[in-house]
Specification:
The complex is a heterodimer of chains A (251) and B (277). Chain A is α/β, with parallel strands linked by helices. Helices cover 40% and strands 24% of the residues of chain A. Chain A has a 5-stranded mixed β-sheet. A 5-stranded mixed β-sheet of chain A has the order 7-6-8-5-9. In chain A, β1 (26-32), α2 (36-50) and β2 (53-59) form a beta-alpha-beta unit. By secondary structure, chain B is mainly alpha-helical. Chain B is 81% helix and 0% strand. Chain B is flat. Chain B starts with a helix and ends with a helix. The chains are: A alpha/beta (251), B mainly alpha (277). Chain A binds chain B through residues 60-63, 65-66, 69-70, 84, 87-88, 132, 135-139, 162-167, 171, 174-175, 178-181, and chain B through 119, 122-123, 126-127, 130, 141-142, 220-221, 223-227, 229-230, 238-246, 249.
Chain lengths: 251, 277
């Protein structure tokens, strides 16, 4: 009986060591859904290198900040744009900020063959088009797209052509794949998975508006040193990983 | 400490209700359940009161979302009610080959995640039926009509199920008695079966309406979340949350909660009134 007890204890201890890794330290990282794939990869490599465990929580950038505001715990925040880090900083949630790890770069997307012949953002002002954009307030990309139109002075004409706003740039891709709309704007990385079934047209850098993808540590972190190590790792190794997933890391 | 007091209370209840201890336990689970729900929503209200964000009540976008939600959910509930009445009647009173298969097909929208309903609807109103509907001057995808259709689609399994129960639980003897008095089947439906099922049908409509009000996934997929065009209150909450505007999201949730609670209570009261009359 006693021997059995001791065995069970040993097994539990071994399990705990396995589960919590070296030093038993676990980081909780909050990341935007739009950068899920590269962030998962960064976390995996960080775990392999340090033996610490990284728990990833994905969500829309704003939702993550809302969750943190209600329940401040965790170590890392990687939202879709600098604007969201600023928002979190204003609420006292952020400790250190570093980056850029990559950039959000708007591109034009159209159905295969580009039947409506939309080649530049200015073309989107042509009457009669049906356009689909990510929401202008709650996404990182919507405001960028309209900053481009503002710069060209065509915002009102473009607004007349809007068929729909959707919650994420990925949904713009889905709508285009289903033949809805003549053109839209997405992030450069969003189209990589279905590039052969869509047309992806870059926007002239001279008129385009981009956004920095940062990484931050949280003031709630219970192990700020490990969080800082993750931040440094993400800045050093992150760009190459983001590049592999279709993101731009230089402008 | 608390658990000791609790167990003392339970054992006293067992002594007080010999042979009915399970009733005491069931009552306990009832009060614990109700208190928990109350505590959860009470917390929401308390948080909203602590940091109110009522500025958006004057916001035209918010007022549009409230109005659009009311219009779309009422339209979807009426559509679901009308389309479910016949189906529920046949399912309640008749047996036919393949009945089980038909039941499963009609229940599918309730089983799959809302987003899957949305994608399927977008495929149907996109590549499949979209070009024809557009030619007929009735484009559905990303238009307000798509919101109504998505809510109707998602909520109709509820109305069919509830209506069927309402018909089936009405006393069949009245109906056959009416038959012996020479009432035609059609007259029997309108003058006996429908009035007998009235309360069940009303609560079925209430459940259907509740389902349409909370619907977000399918609607957002096929109708988009275009501000001032297809933005429902649920979508407004989602967009506020996505934009990091927690206070606005909570305040909008409060409005939805209040409207739903009032409507639910009103329908319940109406049901009571008809039962008394």
């Amino acid at each position: 009986m006693k021997a059995k007890h001791r065995l069970a204890c040993a097994a539990l201890f071994a399990l705990a060591t396995l589960a919590f890794g070296e030093g038993g330290k676990t980081l909780i990282a909050y990341a935007g859904t739009g950068i899920k794939d590269p962030v998962t990869e960064i976390a995996k490599r960080f775990e392999a290198k340090t033996g610490a465990k990284v728990e990833l929580v994905y969500g829309n950038s704003g939702t993550l900040i809302g969750q943190l505001e209600l329940n401040p715990k965790g170590d890392i925040l990687m939202p879709g744009s600098m604007a969201f880090v600023e928002k979190a900083r204003a609420k006292g949630l952020v400790a250190l900020v570093s980056g850029p790890i990559a950039y959000h770069v708007p591109v034009i997307v159209t159905p295969k063959g580009n039947p409506a012949n939309v080649k530049t953002p200015a073309d989107m002002a042509r009457p009669g088009l049906r356009l689909i954009f990510p929401d202008r307030k709650s996404t990182a990309l919507g405001p960028l797209a309209f900053a481009v139109f503002d710069g060209l002075g065509v915002t009102q004409a473009v607004e007349k052509n809007v068929l729909a706003y959707v919650e994420t740039p990925q949904k713009v891709v889905a709508a285009m794949l289903l033949g809805q709309g003549d053109a839209g704007i997405i992030e450069a990385s969003n189209g990589t998975a279905s590039a052969d079934r869509l047309e992806i047209i870059p926007i002239d850098p001279a008129i385009n508006h981009t956004e920095v993808l940062p990484c931050a540590t949280l003031s709630s972190s219970a192990c700020p040193d490990l969080a800082k190590a993750f931040l440094d790792f993400a800045v050093a190794e992150g760009p190459a990983i983001f590049r592999a997933y279709g993101f731009k890391t230089a402008l | 400490m608390v658990s000791r007091r609790l167990s003392r209370r339970v054992s006293r209840a067992i002594r007080l209700f010999p042979g009915r201890a399970h009733i005491a336990l069931f009552s306990l689970s009832l009060s614990v359940g109700a208190l928990f729900v109350l505590a959860v929503f009470g917390g929401l209200v308390a948080y909203a009161v602590r940091s109110p964000a009522f500025g958006f009540f004057g916001d035209p976008e918010f007022r549009f979302a409230v109005g659009f939600t009311l219009r779309a959910t009422v339209a979807a509930t009426l559509c679901a009610g009308l389309s479910s009445l016949g189906a529920a009647y046949v399912l309640a009173f008749y047996d036919f080959p393949g009945k089980r298969a038909v039941e499963i097909v009609l229940g599918l929208p309730m089983l799959v995640p809302p987003l899957v309903n949305g994608v399927a609807l977008l495929i149907f109103f996109g590549p499949i039926a979209g070009p024809t509907l557009s030619r007929l001057g009735f484009p559905v995808a990303f238009n307000p009509a798509a919101a109504v259709i998505a809510m109707w689609f998602v909520a109709s399994p509820f109305s069919i199920r509830m209506f069927r129960q309402a018909f089936a639980s009405a006393d069949a003897r009245y109906s056959s008695l009416a038959g012996t008095f020479g009432l035609s089947p059609l007259a029997r439906f309108f003058r006996v079966q429908l009035p007998l099922a009235r309360n069940g049908l009303a609560s079925g409509l209430a459940m259907t309406w509740a389902r349409t009000t909370g619907e977000f996934g399918a609607t957002a997929m096929v109708a988009g979340v275009t501000r001032l065009k297809t933005e429902t209150l649920s979508a407004a909450i989602f967009l506020s949350m996505s934009g990091g505007d927690l206070d606005a999201a909570i305040s909008a949730s409060l409005v939805l909660l209040a409207v739903s609670a009032v409507a639910y209570a009103a329908i319940g009261l109406a049901g009571e009134a008809t039962r008394v009359a």
